[in-house]
Each structure stands twice: as C-alpha cells, then as structure tokens.
Design goal:
Blueprint lengths: L1 E6 L7 H13 L2 E6 L25 H11 L2 E7 L7 H8 L15 E8 L11 H15 L3 E9 L4
Parallel strand pairs: 1-2, 1-3, 3-4, 4-5
Length: about 160
C-alpha cells in the first residue's frame, strides 16, 4: 500500500510538514511526501476539458500530481489556514483532482485524512474557527469523491 502525503505549507520544515511526515511514518506503508511549493499548480479553469479523459487539459504540474493521487492507495492532505480557510496551494491541488471523477471515480473508496495547522485556537471568541474550516474543506472534498475519511489532526501553529 502506498500513501501520498501533500503539504500546502510554503515554509521549509514547517509544523504542517513535520506533522504530515509523522503521520506518513505512522502508517507503516510506503509513502511519498509532496511539498506543493515545489510544483506549479494552477487552479481549475472549470472548462470541463477533462470530462472525456479523466485528465486535465492544463499543462502544468497539476496533471502529474493528480496522477500521483490516482496511483496512490491513500491520501493525506495537509494545509495551513491563512485568512481562516485552506491555503491557496492546497485548494488548487484539490481542485486539480476534479478530473479523476468523471469516467471512473479514481479516488472513490480510498482512505483519506487531513492535517490542518492553524494559529487560531478552537473556540476563540473573536476569530473564526479557521482550523475547522480548513478541515471541512478537505473532508468535504473526500466525501464528494466517495473516499473513506479516516481521521484528522489539527495543529495549533505559530502566530506570524
């Protein structure tokens, strides 16, 4: 079994990266760690050019990463939460997995998990629940694809 771990954090050796690497190691499976800052991934253009092929028509690293997700047996998505939602790199990555659903739901049935790093503590009275919003973004993606969401970790990160 191979588990793909994807980190949206641009910071080298970030809290998000370290938590993801620990989770990958704990699986006891073959793993691959992807750091999205090292790839060029544009967001989905909503052109539906992928409907007949299960492959995005954009010519960037999003196609390569979608293939890695398709080929993996499980997926862990790790993000941080600027402005109280999932970071833009992670969001673009998730959007670019959209082609995998059309002719054949390639992600359906796979186990998936989430790691969310947020500088806002849960139940902070003056700020939105950023960690939960980021978690829901990942969880809802997995739900929509028919994945088996097996769990999550929320990390209280650093205040910039």
């Amino acid at each position: 079994m191979k588990v793909l771990g994807v980190s949206g954090s641009p910071i080298p050796n970030s809290n998000t990266d370290r938590a993801l690497k620990m989770a990958l190691e704990a699986t006891g499976c073959e793993t691959e760690f992807i750091k999205l800052i090292d790839y060029n991934v544009a967001p989905c253009n909503a052109c539906l050019g992928c409907v007949d092929t299960n492959r995005c028509v954009n010519k960037d690293d999003g196609v390569v990463l979608a293939e890695k997700a398709k080929d993996a047996d499980a997926l862990i998505i790790a993000c941080y939460t600027p402005y109280s939602t999932v970071d833009s790199r992670t969001k673009a990555f998730i959007e670019r997995l959209y082609p995998l659903r059309h002719l054949h739901g390639f992600m359906a049935g796979k186990p998936g998990g989430a790691i969310v790093t947020s500088a806002i503590p849960d139940k902070h009275e003056m700020l939105p629940p950023a960690g939960n919003i980021g978690l829901d973004t990942i969880r809802f993606y997995m739900m929509e694809e028919g994945m088996n969401f097996v769990g999550y970790v929320k990390v209280l990160g650093n205040v910039p």
